[in-house]
């Protein structure tokens, strides 16, 4: 650490977890606690396109053609973003890498910048409980207040506690069958990535079925150790 309390080499963390595991919530809390910057693939692409960088222009052309942005372009955009001053304290990657090919490309990028993956944090969930957690969600169409059939029902059935609206909405893809399919796809896609980082000794598994505060406390401990 230098005199300002900033690592001489900015740490790079990866946050893995299926839809509904709370990655976004936990990443924001880690940003506030540790001064890290959350970088998601979607945000990176949109920002690069808006800024008109060379890689952003390439990405825009590909997306306008209806094609998927290549790993090379994503890596170029990530390289540019990591060089920005606000990333000096470290970053949390959310949504990248998704495959071992991308993980290898990321390793090559970080080798060039003198960095490494300090920790690949996997938020561990129980599939059956996740199906219940996600499929039970609904929101008030009037004020946006979130509810859950089991964990946070409205005081009066069908009436928002906050604004009194009866306009309750559920996402079409938050049904049990779709959620189960998304979880299955996540596990199939991510299993090789889990093995990849486990082999490198970088994998940290964190149980993610408890209270948000308890999960955050364990993540804070993992991040503090990984960035020490």
TrEMBL record:
What the entry says about domains is: Consists of three domains, a large central CORE domain and two small peripheral domains, NMPbind and LID, which undergo movements during catalysis. The LID domain closes over the site of phosphoryl transfer upon ATP binding. Assembling and dissambling the active center during each catalytic cycle provides an effective means to prevent ATP hydrolysis. Some bacteria have evolved a zinc-coordinating structure that stabilizes the LID domain.
Its main localization is: cytoplasm
> What keyword terms does UniProt attach to this protein?
ATP-binding, Cytoplasm, Kinase, Metal-binding, Nucleotide biosynthesis, Nucleotide-binding, Transferase, Zinc
- Which residues does Zn(2+) bind? 140, 143, 160, 163
> Can you provide one Gene Ontology molecular function annotated for this UniProt record?
zinc ion binding
Q: What is this protein called?
A: Adenylate kinase
- Has the keyword Kinase been applied to this entry? yes
User: What's the source species for this entry?
Assistant: Sulfitobacter mediterraneus
Under PANTHER family, the record lists: NUCLEOTIDE KINASE
Kindly tell me the pathway this chain contributes to: Purine metabolism; AMP biosynthesis via salvage pathway; AMP from ADP: step 1/1
Give an example GO biological process. Answer: AMP salvage
Q: Which gene encodes it?
A: adk
Record EC number: 2.7.4.3
Residue intervals of the Adenylate kinase active site lid domain: 137-173
Which EC class is the enzyme in?
Answer: transferase
Which proteins does it associate with, and in what oligomeric form? Monomer.
- Membership in a protein family: Belongs to the adenylate kinase family.
**Swiss-Prot/TrEMBL catalytic activity:** AMP + ATP = 2 ADP
Instruction: Provide the residue positions that the database annotates as binding ATP.
Output: 20-25, 137, 210
Q: Which residues does the record give as AMP binding sites?
A: 41, 46, 67-69, 95-98, 102, 171, 182
Q: Where is this region: NMP?
A: 40-69
Per the UniProt record, one Pfam family is ADK
Query: What does the UniProt entry say about where the protein is found?
Result: Cytoplasm
State the GO CC annotations.
Answer: cytoplasm
What SUPFAM superfamilies does its record include?
P-loop containing nucleoside triphosphate hydrolases
User: Per the record's keyword annotation, is Phosphoprotein included, yes or no?
Assistant: no
């Amino acid at each position: 650490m230098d005199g300002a309390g900033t690592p001489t080499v900015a740490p790079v963390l990866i946050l893995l977890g299926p839809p509904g595991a709370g990655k976004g919530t936990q990443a924001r809390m880690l940003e506030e606690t540790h001064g890290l910057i959350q970088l998601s693939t979607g945000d990176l692409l949109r920002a690069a396109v808006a800024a008109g960088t060379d890689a952003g222009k390439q990405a825009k052309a590909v997306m306008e053609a209806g094609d998927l942005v290549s790993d090379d372009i994503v890596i170029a955009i990530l390289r540019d973003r990591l060089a920005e001053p606000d990333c000096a304290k470290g970053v949390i990657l959310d949504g990248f890498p998704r495959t071992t090919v991308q993980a290898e490309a990321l390793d090559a990028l970080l080798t060039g910048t003198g960095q490494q993956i300090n920790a690949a944090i996997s938020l561990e969930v129980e599939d059956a409980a996740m199906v219940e957690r996600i499929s039970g969600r609904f929101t008030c169409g009037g004020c946006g207040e979130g509810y859950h059939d089991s964990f946070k029902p409205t005081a009066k059935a069908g009436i928002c506690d906050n604004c009194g609206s009866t306009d309750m909405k559920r996402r079409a893809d938050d049904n049990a069958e779709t959620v189960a399919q998304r979880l299955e796809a996540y596990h199939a896609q991510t299993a090789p990535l889990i093995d990849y980082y486990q082999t490198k000794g970088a994998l940290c598994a964190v149980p993610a079925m408890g209270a948000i505060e308890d999960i955050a406390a364990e993540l804070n401990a993992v991040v503090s150790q990984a960035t020490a």
